[in-house]
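Please check this.
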Amino acid sequence: MLTRDKDIAGLSKRVDEVINKAIENNKIIGTVTLICKDGNFIYKSVAGYADREDKTKMELDSIFRLASVTKPIVSAAALVLVSKKIIGLDDPITKWLPDFQPRLMSGNKPSITIRHLLTHTAGLTYGFLEPEGGGAYKKAGVSDGMDLSGLSLKENLKRLSSAPLLYKPGTNWCYSIAVDVLGAVISKAYEDSLQTLIKTLITDPLKMTNTSFDVIDKQKIVAQYLSCSPIPKRMGDKEVAQVFEGTAGIVFEPARAFDTSAFPSGGSGMNGTAEDFLYFLEELRSGDFLLPKDIKNEITKIQTGNLPLTGWPGRGFGLGFTILKDPKEANTKESIGTWRLGGAYGHSWFVDPIEKLTVVSFTNTAFEGMDGQFTVDLTDAIYG
């Protein structure tokens, strides 16, 4: 445990070495990495470039395209509505989206609940996880929420509903576009746009002034890079990159961040700073403003039983992020119960409730900053 000044000094030295090495070896271009212990900052690093070509240095308030870092924010907003009795975890989503009734391969239309969406057990997937060349989602023209599709959210959900479910809801787990559907549900329930809902319930109360669906200050947003050999390449207008070999790959169109007409993707559409997101995580870990204790306990309880999580060995899923079950299987020094997720544009974060530790590391380099060796080395350095 980090209990003494010398422990924290040792941590700072180790983490500095990891970050400096990753930048020197061209693994990442730039990063903002923040660590809190028991509610107090014990480490802040702002390193490398926000824009390599323009030699613009990274700043503490640099804005990042959040990608899946959006998910816990939208999930928390849904849980605020649960706490207010506006929605229920086990309510069928047809209560708000009557036309969203995707079928199983058998032709049956099973009930999908809000809990299924929060836990990625709804039977949905992502187009980027389909086999190389595409599958039902590509055929239907479904947007994963990171491209300039030109679609409305209503049209995207219509297309998504036309594709078959992978399995009966609640019987399996697959990382998915479910939080985009969740965003549509809570918007209907709240009777306002998702942008307004998030601003009213989450970002304004927590003073997350640099976090939103629309980029607040275009001068502060980082340039995007893609891990390549020998050095990361600057993303063009459109890049397709595989998270897993043999899959269709994510369609990255960084300009989506500036398109005010783009539909608000609850799973990947927000932009923000590392500091804002750390404050959000700290509120979930130890605050009492957003959610009552019973809801907070439900968030961090494994909801998926013994279902395996592809890409996340040793972990289960709570209401918005993974929960560590078996550190040995996960090959990590994190404590049992640690929350973790990431973002495809190059972000990783975790909260270790036992150690009262909150870590946010945003980079502008996909996928190294999300799940590359940098994230492994960073975690090892933190725990010593």
Observations:
- The two ends are 10 Å apart (CA to CA).
